[in-house]
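Problem: given the chain below (137 residues), write out its structure.
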Amino acid sequence: MNYKKIVLGTLAYFISSFVIQGLLGFAFAGEYFLSIPILRIPPIAYLALPQAIVAGIAFAILYPITNFKGTPVLRGLKFGLLIGLIMVPFIALDLPARFVIPSVGTWIVVQGILGILHFAIAGILIGLIYGRDTKEG
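Solution.
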């Protein structure tokens, strides 16, 4: 296990999460998010930050066991989209099914776009970090 790549991959996931889900999400749909009565203002960062770190560790550990073909960027993109295919439906579809979210359609579109974008970019970054060889070393 290459711990340096796991740390770098975790950092790449964490930063892409903050930039895309946080900054871009607020720029893209900040008023909408602020209108949701169940959202905590301000959020509890000490719960959200470790979640992103743990998810990033899993992301970085899972990447080298995949067998995608292509350049590091293409392999990373495929990996990110696969993880997005698993995670985005939960965020975009399951959460509004269980909580009172105003404008479910807006929620699905915003979370779908941000989620796919986040996982695609995080995947590309992890592909670049691992490069051509995903074997240990």
